[in-house]
Write a structure and sequence with these properties.
Blueprint (H helix, E strand, L loop, with lengths): L6 E9 L2 E10 L4 E6 L8 H11 L3 E11 L7 E3 L1 H17 L8 H6 L4 E3 L4 H48 L3 H18 L7 H13 L3 H20 L4 H21 L3 H21 L4
Parallel strand pairs: 3-4
Antiparallel strand pairs: 1-2, 2-4, 5-6
């Protein structure tokens, strides 16, 4: 399966005290151009995240954004720091041992003590693990998105290949007749000029000019290149650069066919081929 370089994925999760969102988007590019935007709290993860994303993408301009937002105080869960309460209880017990008449701490006093009440927060290790988890989900969604785009692109390319094959099938049988008609036309002009086209020297010149307008080789190469395009599409993988090269070769042959044509139908076929090849070239630019 071939994959497009165009894709998008976004995932998010609510964690204790924070909300985390990962967004990845990619568009076509000649090489892999990766950019990552991270909050300051996650800046240390940039190298690891870059390596992970690069391992999943061969080409394309890929942009990854990770957002970390603190939840509002009203939405956060109030938690009691048990360790802080235990420390406070030990301190109070030590005071009572030295001052038995001291009044014990009330629940209200304990809750008011600094650090006892806190908004729930996720541990740094758990946050890092969650970032990698969400990134993995986003990369999988991005790959699925690019695969879907690639499947649609392949359908368009195969339709264009069929169109090129139809043009080749239309003009290939006409080549011998066009070649013979061109020779007859040259011979008639020579006779009008009072020359004998059957002379050896003139025969050689006629054969030379006839070879210059022979398009059998171009038509054959068009068919060969289309077969190679189909093979590359069936093989799948990172096929973009190979297909781009084949588009250049197809355009070269179609252009030569038009420049050598001495027949209106061949010229029309050349124009149709150029349109189809240009459509393919635009689609190939998006293939990884």
């Amino acid at each position: 399966m071939i994959a497009s370089m165009t894709g998008y994925a976004a995932v998010a999760a609510d964690l204790p005290g924070v909300s985390l969102a990962v967004e990845i988007r990619s568009v076509n590019h000649r090489y892999l151009d990766l950019s990552i935007r991270l909050p300051d709290e996650l800046r240390s993860l940039e190298s690891a995240l870059r390596e992970r994303i690069a391992a999943e993408s061969k080409r394309g301009k890929v942009e990854c954004r990770i957002a970390l937002n603190r939840t509002s105080p009203g939405a956060a869960t109030i938690a009691v720091d048990a360790a802080r309460v235990a420390q406070l209880a030990e301190a109070a017990a030590a005071v009572r041992r030295n001052a038995p008449d001291a009044t014990p701490l009330s629940v209200e006093q304990i809750l008011r003590w600094p650090g006892v009440l806190a908004e729930a927060a996720i541990a740094p290790e758990a946050l890092v693990a969650k970032v990698h988890e969400l990134l993995g989900i986003a990369l999988k969604d991005l790959a699925a998105s690019r695969d879907r785009e690639g499947a649609k692109t392949r359908t368009v390319l195969e339709a264009c290949c069929a169109g090129i094959e139809n043009q080749v099938a239309r003009v290939a049988p006409r080549i011998p007749a066009v070649h013979a008609a061109y020779l007859d036309k040259l011979g008639a002009r020579l006779r009008e000029a009072g020359l004998d086209p059957d002379q050896d020297r003139l025969k050689q010149e006629l054969a030379f000019f006839a070879a210059k307008v022979d398009v059998a080789e171009e038509v054959s190469r068009l068919a060969t290149h289309v077969a190679e395009v189909r093979r590359v599409l069936n093989a799948g993988g990172a096929a973009g650069k190979r297909l781009d090269f084949l588009m250049q070769e197809l355009h070269r042959e179609a252009n030569t066919l038009g420049s050598k044509s001495v027949d209106a139908e061949l010229s029309q076929a050349s124009l149709e081929l150029k349109v189809l090849i240009e459509q393919m070239r635009e689609q190939v630019q998006n293939i990884e």
